[in-house]
Design a protein that fits this description.
The chain has 2 helices and 3 strands. It has 109 residues and is α+β, with helices and mostly antiparallel strands. It folds into 2 domains: 1-45, no CATH class; 47-109, no CATH class. It has a 3-stranded antiparallel beta sheet with strand order 1-2-3, with no helix packed on it.
Length: 109
């Protein structure tokens, strides 16, 4: 990964990965995939994975702040393509031996 970088990796894995191209406007890329869900509507979908020690430090972030950051990076991808989010989702890898008390989900209220 270090020698090809993020965009080189995207180019490498995107070759031939679109198995159902009907309705796809833009497939795999940096921001989001765009596809038609009916004759006039365009949907965008994106997932950015936040990885511990690269995007966050477990001992230095609350569960709330990690969730906020995860949502923010994905919302910015949708906004970069001129869209507005309606149904957010998130993906986060956690090791089996995670110290769960440091990741407790708590609100700021």
């Amino acid at each position: 990964m270090k020698d090809i970088g993020e965009f080189g990796f995207i180019r490498r894995i995107s070759r031939g990965c679109l198995t159902r191209p009907d309705g796809v406007i833009r497939g795999i890329g940096d921001d989001a995939a765009a596809f038609r869900t009916d004759g006039r509507l365009v949907s965008l979908i994106t997932t950015d994975l936040l990885v511990e020690r690269i995007h966050f430090l477990r001992h230095a972030i609350s569960g709330y702040d990690l969730g906020y950051k995860s949502l923010a990076v994905n919302l910015s991808d949708i906004a970069a393509m001129g869209g507005s989010a309606r149904k957010p989702s998130s993906a986060s890898p956690f090791p089996r031996a995670a110290n769960w008390p440091t990741l407790r989900m708590s609100s700021r209220a």
